[in-house]
Amino acid sequence: MIEQLSYPYVPTAVLYNGTQSVVNCPFVAAESTPTYPTAHKTYLYGLQPEITTKSVGVTVVLWGTNFRSNSVVYVNGTVCASGINFINSSYIAVTVDFTQYAGNTGSLPITVDDSAPYIIRYYKPFSAVIGVTSSVLYTKTYNQVITISGANLPLFSGAFCVFNFTSKGTASPLTITGSTAASCPLPRTATSGVYSVSFAVAASKYDLPQLGLVKGNYYQYPLLTTATTFSVPVYAKGPAAVSAKFSNSGASIYVDLDSQATVIDVNKWSAYGVLSPLDLSSAVPCSAIFQTAPTYGNAVLPIGKLSAGVSGDCLVQQLTGTRLKIQLQAQFTAYDPSAVVPGQLITVLSGSLWATQQALCKVQPSSVVITPPDVVPTPAISIVAPVVLPRCDGVVLSLDMTATSGSAGRNYSAAGSSLTASTTSPASDYSVVTALNTLLAGCLADINHQAVCQIPVAMLWMAPSGYQVFTFNLTLTNYLGGSASQSVQVSVSPNGLVPLVSVIGVPATGAKINQIQTITALGSLACGIYSPILYQWTVSGASCPGLSATPVVSNASQIVIPPYTLKPLTTCSVSLQVKYASQSTWFSATPSFTTAAEIVQVSAGSSRTVGSSENIVVDALLFSDSFVVQANPQFQCTWTCTNSHGFICNNAYLKQFTGCTGNVLTGTLGVDSYSYKVLFFFFRFRRKAFLVMILAQLQVTVQDTVTGKTATSVAPATINVVSSSVPVVTISMPNEKVSPYSDKFALFAVVDSTTVSSTQNLKFSWSACNSNDYSTIDFSNPINFLTNASASQVLKFSPGVLEGDAEYCAAVTVVDGTNVGTAQIVFETYEVPYSGFCFLKAASVAQANQPLQYSCPYWAVDPSAQPLTFGFYVRFASSNSWTLIAPTTRSSMLNSSFVTGNYQLKAVVTDQYGSSVMGVASAFSGSQELSLSESGSCQTYACTQLAAAVANYENTHNSQDAAQTIGSVALLVDPTSPDFETILGFIGMFATDIYVDTTSTGPFLASVLQTISGANYSLPASVFSDVVDLVQNVINQITASGLSQSPVSCVNVLAAESLFLVLDQLMGSSTTLPFTNAERQQSISQFEQSLQTLGTCFSRNKDAEEYPFSFTSVYLTRQIGVAFTDTNSTFCTFNVGAYAAATNDTTISYNCGTQPPKDFPAASGNIAAVDLVHDLTLGSVSSENKVEVSQTNFDLQVTADFKDQYGLGSAVCTFYNTTTGQWSTDGCSVTAVSSNGVVSCSCNHLTAFAIGSTQGTSGGLSIGAIIGCVIGAIALVLVTAGSIYQIRKTQQSQPAAAGSLLPTSAPPQTLESSAPPPAAGSGGGGGGGLCGNGAGGELNEIVTVPTNPAPPPMKAISPAVPLAAAAGVGAAAAVAAAALAPRGGPTAPKLLPTYSKPPSYDAHVKKMGR
Predict the structure, then answer these.
(1) What DSSP assignment string belongs to 362-377?
(2) Model confidence over 665-709: pLDDT tens digits?
(3) Among the four 363, 549, 562, 1177, which has the fewest Cβ within 10 Å?
(4) Which residues does 189 contact at the CB level (< 8 Å), separation at least 6?
(5) Which pTM value belongs to this model?
(6) In this prediction, what percent of the chain has a pLDDT beyond 70?
């Protein structure tokens, strides 16, 4: 019997130097029948064993054919005379004494009769391996060798080192160089660890199972004996920095690593060798990973400071497994001259980075040189100066540079100026020139802290005649080397007969042509002249290319250039003429600016899986900030394609693209007119066939034939062709690169309807792509999304969830029965503003009669996101609510006056992509004296300020001065104040005179209106209609402005809530006012129009399937959103299923909620008075056409009073006829009445509806409780191609985005759309449920308002308390959010916090569970 020597099977394809050197070590699979030789009669196929120890009496079994009992066996050429055992014609055995042969190792040929020889090898039985040595071995490394020492090692080939890398072992050839030395290469492995190694030699090629002489494995591996079990440690190399680069804004440094890294506690590792990973779900201090102190050991490349010490450390985020982001600290970088700069080293601490998912790691320090950003930010210099300056005592030339940006978050490294004049200074005035230059130099020396230079007009010399024109030039350089210059001209009058006029809003550098440009003249009275200032603006296509066929909005002191009316890289000049009305001569100025080069981005589209029989059409996604579809092709694109095997696609199986010309960036892939045949590869391995599919990777480059600019897709789109039929889905997006704080970025899954059985029953789910190359987001947490990521066709991220300047990959899965389709897409985010800070110039006190100066300089911003805008919010220290003190502006400084009191002030900084960052609040005390008029007509500071401001505005139309007065005085006025009518009139004058947009003046007016309206429903009858008119005017102007933008938009959520709160105050106030029916009917018309217009406008900010925006207060509730039109939908309590046929749009906007019944005239005829009124409006998304429906159904819970007094049998469904002002039952019918008081209605038209009682009282009409629904005029919403808008704001708390002033709401864990939420209460003024149960829900911390509430006592002067400013839900959750909550059950949405009074920011955050 032959001794069984076994060893685990050795797998295939061990790689060395990238080539396959060992296959199925050492054998290939045996054929079932050997190949017969042709030159012999006796055939010898093999023997067992083929290798043996050098010993006596080894039995060798021979396998062949034609063996005979007298066959002659030759061993080493000598006839074997004894020890032969003939078994049969196929087997014969011979016993051999191997000790008689020389050498410790050798080989013997054996033949039978005339057969070909077969070789058997032998070696000394005491051959042994004694030791193993090597240098440090690493994973993923070629050509690593281990050295073996031994005794009597066999000197023949076929020996192997066998490692336990896998369960069956992995082998590499053992090279024996002598009887005591050998070596073998370490197979390349990706996994670190301590591996055992054994040593084996190859045994027989064929065995003899038929005889039973060998048991067990077919293949045998005799082992070399060892003194012990040898282990080989294999380490992963610790991640090392390979590059470091400043971000484009200069606020961050990106460090790229050579391998996937896990950040560990460097102190625990260095001190104790303990592996303790850090939690990088949030940022960690830089000192945890990097050397932060400056080290100047290398004179050429010193290490710059990364932080100011423990109290001022910078922060590190891990964006991907191989990318770290260092966020430099704001004040440290602004003031520390040793802060790190390009060209210096950055050093990773040894022991801070561990190889991800590795058991063994050799941690290592590493240093790299920090390079400048790809796009060096250049200063965007803005100098606001008078275009004309009168000459008289006391006049000062102000050079305001506070709107300058591009400092890259630090002090400017260099600043210079020059001054020229239209006529030279007289020789006698050289001292004046010297003094002027000295003043300018001193001003610029402090430009990092004081960006306004004041020059007395007396220092500016006069021209011999006429105006003297001075040109001031400013040059700034930031620490990254970006430099820019800007000039401004000031015409100085020889006398005081012209007003002092400045122009703001002129773009500092290239103006983006997809943005509105609002240029404003700011006039001031001077030199003792009190006369109205007149303005005239003129513009033409010749002076401003692109404007010849486009109207330009022009107000008294403003000119507004709509988006897309200019061309890239052109110069636009507008003419301004100005004079006093009392003068006859106009002064002319010509502000000009250049437009920016077009920004073009392109994406190769989404990666996806397609069936082999499907058409494969690829569409590039082109994003341009100026492109409008033209008749002539503007863009040309070039596709490149490679398949999964690295070959270009235009081979026999994959052809190059066709199409993709002009403005249609579409390509086709395939061989048979858009079809693509699957290529199958079969590898035969151990009798198994493996199918390999083709992956085609597509990239696209687009060239603008007008400007010559090109753009290439960031990531390839991969087409995965499979043999089965699958739903073909692609992903569309509005931009390839977006703001992480944008509320307008959504991914939309588009399914090819020809590849699915039905589009109605598809199931969608979203996830992150399975790759470490992208930043990640937790898709399992619903708080991260504004849509349902596990079920929605649309994916929308909560603002602030995405990191800035990162790359993400999102995937969607579509299930159609048993067929599954997938797609994924890559997108990038812009860097958000960072590193700035805000400070009070006067530490804590606004001096008497001196404006407060609050400055926010040195914000770092992506160069393409300039310019920044600044919004300043103020509140009394005792107040919970913030007020926007002035329209947002490009100036980083606030100048405003405040009455005596303690205040808090903060700024919100916003870039052009919508990223907002909130500054830290600063406290200050105001000591402004009350300068009451001598006549005594004014008894309050507000009166004095308003009187002066109104008089000044009537003369100057200076919108900046007016806005600052309105903002500061609004803090002191409420409806009970004696100055309420004055400020209301001033706001009305201001709102009529200026351009009200969606980003600046619109939010400002919304905030001010909310502030002065108060919170006690006490608007007096004398001003009620004026407030209604003013609110309607502001909403209409905001809507018109939003329609002119691309994409269409509206004010942000804070401003929308402010306007809804004002409407709520109006509605609440109207319930106590003695209106006639005619007056009430007019009020209905205005309220309805305002509600519909505002709802339509705000829906532009939303996307289909997004959680709806929800607003709840005492007298008004709203839900605003967008839905798909291809399915039946339920809005509030309404079910509308027939509107899809009435519009060609894919989406439709909706706006529903409740209103107080007393806003409506009294009922007449056989219909009783109205209780709580419900309403719904629907709108088209592509036009302003009304969306008609043939049927709407709704269920309403009647109140207990109605049920008890009139009985359910008297209930009827009615509608409010806005023409007659009467309630009617025409077109409506009761479909069901339940025992618990739910009345079901069905109506065949869209007008105003209500449920009433037909029972009357002895005195005439019934006054029963009626639950009603009113559908007013139809709301409209417009969207741009490729964008789908819907609203769905949720009722569960979510973290605040970094740019918001309060946290926003979040989706409930389980959405319930079928059960209507209960109303807030029963009876006449119960306020607030969203189309729900009239029995009402429990109101926690909610003030219950009676049917005819008496106004609460008011102080003589009470600062207004608008609900928490800049909140996602601050105003909406203010009073009665509980009224929206369904009763009981696990699916009820979680309520938002509710308050009996406006909350503070901290209280709101705490209540949200932060």
Answers:
(1) E---EEEEEEPPSS--
(2) 444 444 332 223 223 222 222 223 333 345 667 777 777 766 677
(3) 549
(4) 139, 140, 165, 170, 234
(5) 0.77
(6) 71
Contacts of 596 (CB under 8 A, 6+ apart): 509, 510, 511, 512, 513, 568, 569
The C-alpha atoms of residue 1030 and residue 1035 are separated, in whole angstroms, by 9
Cis peptide before 867 (omega within 30 of 0): yes
**pLDDT above 60 for 438:** yes
Distance CA 1151, CA 1091 (A): 8
Closest listed residue to residue 994, CA positions, set 1008, 1004, 984: 1004
Give residue-wise pLDDT tens across range 586-637: 999 888 888 887 666 777 777 777 776 655 666 667 666 654 444 345 667 6
Q: Omega into 26 within 30° of 0, i.e. cis?
A: yes
Cα–Cα distance, 1246 to 1139 (Å, whole number): 11
Q: b/e for 1048-1076, b at 16 or more Cβ within 10 A?
A: bbbbbbbbbbbbbbbbbbbbbbbbbeebe
Please state whether the peptide bond connecting residue 734 to the residue before it is cis, i.e. omega within 30 degrees of 0.
no
What is the separation of C-alpha 282 from the centre of its chain, rounded to a whole number of angstroms?
17
Q: Which two tokens stand for residue 248?
A: 């484009």
Residues contacting residue 71 through CB under 8 Å, at least 6 positions apart: 42, 86, 92, 112, 113
Q: How many helices and strands, by DSSP H and E, does the chain display?
A: 12, 89
- In this structure, the strands spanning 230-237 and 137-138 are parallel
Structure tokens at 359: 């058991």
Q: Tokens representing 1345?
A: 């308002």
DSSP 30: P
Give the tokens for residue 299: 């004179």
What is the token pair recorded at 654? 């994959």
Distances (CA, A) of 833 to 419, 578, 805: 33, 38, 11
Element (H, E) at 1011: helix 1001-1013
> Using CB atoms within 10 A of its CB, is residue 290 exposed (0-12), middle (13-18) or buried (19+)?
buried
Tell me the torsion sign for CA atoms 782, 784, 789, 790: negative
Give the whole-angstrom CA distance, residue 232 versus residue 850. Answer: 78
Report the half-sphere exposure of 168 (CA within 13 A, side-chain side): 6
20's CB contacts (< 8 A; 6+ apart) are: 13, 14
- Assign 331 a pLDDT band (cuts: 50, 70, 90): low
Question: Measured between alpha carbons, how far is 829 from 806 in angstroms, rounded to an integer?
Answer: 5
Q: Which residues contact 1028 (CB under 8 A, 6 or more apart)?
A: 1066, 1083, 1086, 1087, 1090
Name the helix (H) or strand (E) containing 970: helix 959-970
What is the C-alpha to C-alpha distance for residues 1001 and 1004, in angstroms, rounded to an integer?
5
Helix, strand, or coil (residue 565): coil
- Fill in the amino acid letter for 357: Q
Residue 703, helix vs strand vs coil: strand
Spatial contact of 98 and 58, defined as CB atoms under 8 Å apart: yes
How many whole angstroms separate alpha carbon 1203 and alpha carbon 22? 89
| 314 within 8 A of 326, measured Cβ to Cβ | yes
For residue 324, which of 365, 288, 270 has the smallest C-alpha distance?
288
Q: Are 1031 and 996 in contact (CB under 8 A)?
A: no
Q: Which structure tokens are listed for 1179?
A: 């709108």
- Three-class SS state of 755: helix
- Would you call 878 exposed, middle or buried from its count of C-beta atoms within 10 A (0-12, 13-18, 19+)? exposed
What does the block give as tokens for 477? 């350089």
1300 by Cβ neighbours in 10 Å (0-12 / 13-18 / 19+) ranks as buried
User: Cβ neighbours of residue 430 under 8 Å, at least 6 residues apart?
Assistant: none
Q: Which two tokens stand for residue 1110?
A: 């929800």
Closest by CA position to 1067, among listed 973, 1004, 1153: 1153
The token duo for 763 is 């199931």
Q: Which of 206, 326, 314, 311 is nearest to 254 (CA)?
A: 326
